[in-house]
Amino acid sequence: MKDERPRTKERVKVTLWTLIVPPTTWAAHFLFSYLWAAISCAKVGKFATFPTLFVVGTVIALIVIAASGWIAWRQSRVPGDAPPHQDSTDVDRLRFLAVSTMLLAGLSFVAVIYTALPVVFIGNCR
Amino acid sequence: MRWQREATGTRVRLRRLAATAILLITGCNRHQSALAPFGAEADDTLSLTIVLASGAAVIALGVVLLVWNASRAREHALSESGGLRLVLWAGAIFPTVVLTVLLLFALPAMRPLPESDADLRIQVEGEQFWWRVRYAPPGAAPLMAANEVRVPVGRTVVFELTATDVIHSFWIPGLAGKMDMIPGRTNQLVVRATKPGTFRGVCTEFCGLSHALMAFDVIAMEPAAFDAWLAEARRTERASSGRGAQAFDRRGCGACHAIAGTPHHAVIGPDLTHYSERLTLGAGILEPTVANTAAFIRDPSAFKPGARMPAYAAMPQAEAEAIARYLKGAP
Questions:
Q1: What would be the CATH architecture of the domain defined by B243-327?
Q2: Is residue A117 less than 8 Å (CB to CB) from chain B?
């Protein structure tokens, strides 16, 4: 008997919640960067040669943002009418949310990288 | 005639532009300018400034050309999808790439210079409105000074900066970036001078009435000359007899100021042991002549509003001059 349930990637849908995931991740990573630098400099006194925890945190943030970007990208390809998608219909709402999420994911992805680069390059507690 | 009026208008505008340019040019100098660097960090900052300014000029020119092109395009020659593509490439992708490249170019320059325990440390404390300076060479006795900083060329020097009253900021534009001096906290600034000369530093955090009058001289010396100066300065002792020394004693100057070799060791005001060598009086504001020094002693607030030193208006001019001559090195 064939499984009637849709596959996972067909079940995920962009919502207002998906929309706020990339900027929230960016904000969380920003806070994490400051807290990590302040705590590790205060506790250890010098900068780690390889900041494992920071790299792991940054990779997780990038994966979360990329995942919401990927969901949004899939949803933005749902067939429908031509732009502008500004009517109060389910399809237009979905496409609007999808495109917005995609743009926010792009912005947040770049922003997380910009936040992480100084840690890699400056590598100093002063 | 209309063309005559236009020509006159252009001439007036040009004249105004020239007047403004001349006013701005008066700010140009080589002793207190980030555009005339004598330190490793200031060199990096200057090259970054040149790259940024040229890049910004090229981008501004590109935007002007695009606008000019768009405003002259024939009707229907430009499509909406072409415009959106332009926004995507020139408005999002290009700035992201440029900013990434700039970040990668600028970040290594922000890294502090490497330092070790063997480097000379100079502790500078900001006070309203002067600088307490203490040279702490590794493995040798420290030297107290004020309102003047000497650094050896080619060697790494660590400035340890703090303040006693309010927040000040320590900036030698030709040497390195600025660093705040915060009461209760010591900030480090690592520098390396690259050429000898006499320069100037300033306070760059508003700290009170005479904030704009809080400066200091910076002398970058060849390493051998610096070592010789430091050894000699540490040995300096001033006589405690003579007319000027007696007046200094009698007037209670020693309640605030120290002079090596005399019984005066107070640390409230600037150390005056090496006053005779200083290039300026009152933290970088006056020529240290006998006349200026005497005038400053009798009424410091006339030169530095808000200065903590009291006025000695009742002191006879001759006595003030005797103290000034003593400070200037007379026995």
A1: Sandwich (2.60)
A2: yes
